[in-house]
From TrEMBL:
Keyword Lipid biosynthesis attributed: no
Keyword Amino-acid biosynthesis belongs to the record: no
Record keywords: Capsid protein, Sporulation, Virion
Subcellular location: Spore coat
Family listed: Belongs to the CotF family.
Gene3D superfamilies for the chain: 1.20.1260.10
Superkingdom per UniProt: Bacteria
GO biological process: sporulation resulting in formation of a cellular spore
Protein name as it appears in the record: Spore coat protein F
Source organism of this protein record: Lentibacillus halodurans
Main subcellular location of this protein, as a coarse class: other
InterPro entries: Ferritin-like, Spore_coat_CotF-like
Length: 158
């Protein structure tokens, strides 16, 4: 690494990936005991191993981000569920945007546009909830990054 720190834009992408993968790992681990099909269970276990490895690699870049401050330990509570809905709604917005560019039918495109607007509204609603309840410190990069590290530790320890 040439620089002592990551650039702001890559730090934010690192945050997005780390948060998304941490929540995904927690959900995958929580669902593992509910699966009775042997083949599907093996797929889940492989996915867990891959997510753990990915998070371990991503966490190594956090010392190169702006210096995080302290924050509370991440818990599986409203913050977890709100973060999961935020990630889901963000992914929905991206998926609709991609689907619209692949649509040849005017009728389907209009339906997708309407559903994209709904997905954007959903994202706005959950983001505002999280921001107001101090679950997503968008304007405090140090807190945001420390929260990521706490989520990685929690997900890996489950």
């Amino acid at each position: 690494m040439e620089q002592n720190t990551l650039a702001w834009h890559e730090t934010l992408e690192l945050h997005e990936l780390t948060a998304f993968k941490s929540i995904g790992l927690m959900k995958t681990k929580m669902g593992l005991n509910q699966i009775h099909d042997h083949h599907l269970k093996n797929i889940y276990q492989q996915t867990i191993q891959e997510l753990e490895a990915d998070l371990g690699e991503l966490a190594k870049f956090y010392p190169y981000t702006p210096k995080p401050g302290n924050s509370n330990e991440y818990r599986i509570d409203n913050g977890f569920y709100a973060g999961d809905l935020l990630a889901f709604s963000k992914t929905a917005v991206r998926n609709y945007a991609i689907a619209i560019t692949e649509t040849a039918s005017d009728v389907l495109r209009e339906v997708l546009r309407n559903q994209l607007d709904t997905a954007i509204t959903c994202h706005e609603r959950i983001y505002n909830y999280m921001y107001r309840n101090e679950m997503y410190p968008s304007y405090n990069l140090n807190q945001l990054l420390q929260s990521d590290i706490n989520m990685v530790k929690k997900a890996l320890s489950m």
